[in-house]
Amino acid sequence: MKNFYEKVLISLANLASFMAEEIIRTEIHEYGSGVIVGMQEGQKIKWNDIETSFGIHILEEYKPSGTQQLKAEDIIEELNKIPENIRKYVISVALVPFTHPYREHFISKEEVEDGWEIIGSGDYCKNQITIYAVPLDRSILKDVLRKELTLGHEAGHIIDGDPRAKAKLKTKGRFISHTPQWTMAMCKDSKIKRISTELPSYFVSKYAEDAYLLNEDFAESVKCFSDEYCRAWLAQYCPSRYKILDDLLGPV
Amino acid sequence: MDPSKRRFENLPSGAVSWEKVYLDDKGNPTEKEKAVKFIISEYDEHGELLREHFGIKIK
User: Fold this and answer.
1) Searching chain A, which residue's CA lies closest to the CA of residue B27?
2) DSSP label at A81?
3) pLDDT in tens, A69-118
4) Which pTM does this prediction carry?
5) Which among B12, B48, B59 has CB closest to A115?
6) Measured between CB atoms, which of A100, A107, A210 is closest to B29?
7) A19 CA to chain B: closest CA distance, Å?
8) Exposure of B45 by Cβ count < 10 A (0-12 exposed, 13-18 middle, 19+ buried)?
9) Which candidate, A138, A149, A110, A77, places its Cα nearest to that of B57?
10) CA A91, CA A74: separation in Å to the nearest integer?
11) ipTM over the 0.85 cut-off
C-alpha cells in the first residue's frame, strides 16, 4: 500500500512539473527604477503587471509605444518550455520600451554600426529578467530566446543565489556554485571520459571555461537541465552535477 | 578568465568591473569577427556576478 501512495505522489509531482503558466490576474501600476531594472532614476511608466499561475510577474507597457516587439504571451510561451521547478525562481520578466541603459557604454560605435544589440539582462538581486526594445521582427526575437535557451541560463544564475534553493540543498554561503558540493561534483565529473576532445573537461561548457567562473558553470548546467536533449547529455557526462540539480529542480 | 579582458570602472548599477565575451553560433568563445552573440557580465567589488547582459548581431 505504501508503494501505491508513493507512486501517486510521484505522479502528482510529475504532473505539477508540467503545468503551464497561465495569466491569473492583470493589474495596472506605475513603476520606476525601484522595480524595473534599467529605468532611469525618477522616470515612471504605467505597466500592465501580469501575474501568472506560478507567481511570475510579466511587465509590459500599459500603453504600448511600439518599440518593444515582444508581448507577454511570447514570454509565457517561452517560460512554458522550461520546467516549472526552474521557472518558479524567476520573480519578474520586464518587456521594456527602451534600449539597454548603458548600451553606448558597453558597445562601441563601430559595434552599433555593425549591428550589435543588447537583447536582455538578468539581475540577480531582483531575480528579474529584462528584455529590451530591439528593432527586430517579433518572430526573430522569439526565435533568439528559444534557440539560446536564454531564460534557462538566466534562471540558472537566479537559482544559484536564491535562499529557497540554498535551503533545499541545505547549503550556506552566497552561491550554490561556490559550495564544496558543487566543486566536488565538478571534480568528479571531470573524470568521466568525453567522446569529443573539443568539449571542456572541467567546466560544463566552453563559455563557462572561458569565463572561468563557478557561477557560469552552474548557470550553464541549469540551462542544460532545462532542455530535454541537453539534460540527457548532462546525465551522461556530468552525473554528479545532474544529481545535485535533480535533487534541487526535479522531477522534470 | 583572461584578466586583460576585465575592465575596472564604476557603473551606475554598483558594479566595479565588467567583461565582454564573444561567442560563435555553438556558444563557444571566439573572436569578434567570427562571433554572432556576446555576453557582458558585471561584477561587484568581491568579483561576484551582479548582472549579465546578452546581445546578438542583428545585421
Assistant:
1) A207
2) T
3) 999 999 999 888 889 899 999 999 999 999 998 888 899 888 888 889 99
4) 0.84
5) B59
6) A210
7) 28
8) exposed
9) A110
10) 17
11) yes
- Chain A: closest CA distance from residue B14 (Å): 12
- Within 8 A of B20 by CB-CB distance, chain A residues are 106
- Contact between A148 and B54 using a beta-carbon 8 Å cutoff: yes
For residue A251, the tally of other CB atoms under 10 A from its CB is: 14
How does DSSP assign A112-172, residue by residue? Answer: HHTTEEEEEEEETTTTEEEE---SS-HHHHHHHHHHTTHHHHHHHHHHHT-HHHHHHTT--
CB contact under 8 A, A116 and B27: no
CA distances from A175 to A15, A191, B26, B51 (A): 29, 24, 27, 14
The predicted-structure confidence for A38-66, as pLDDT tens digits, reads as follows: 888 899 999 999 999 888 999 999 999 99
A55, A80, A240 from A20: Cα distances, Å: 12, 6, 29
The answer to whether A159 and A177 have CB atoms below 8 angstroms apart is no
Chain A residues whose C-beta is within 8 A of a chain B C-beta are 37, 100-102, 105-107, 114-125, 134-136, 144, 148, 150, 154, 157, 174-175, 205-207, 210-213, 215
- Grid coordinates of A245: 540539480
- Beta carbons within 8 Å of A15's beta carbon, 6+ residues apart: none
Separation of alpha carbons A70 and A134, rounded Å? 9
Structural domain boundaries of chain A?
Answer: 10-148, 163-249
Average pLDDT in the B35-47 region? 91
| A241 and A185 Cβ atoms separated by less than 8 Å | yes
Closest CA to A176 of A225, A111, A236, A230: A225
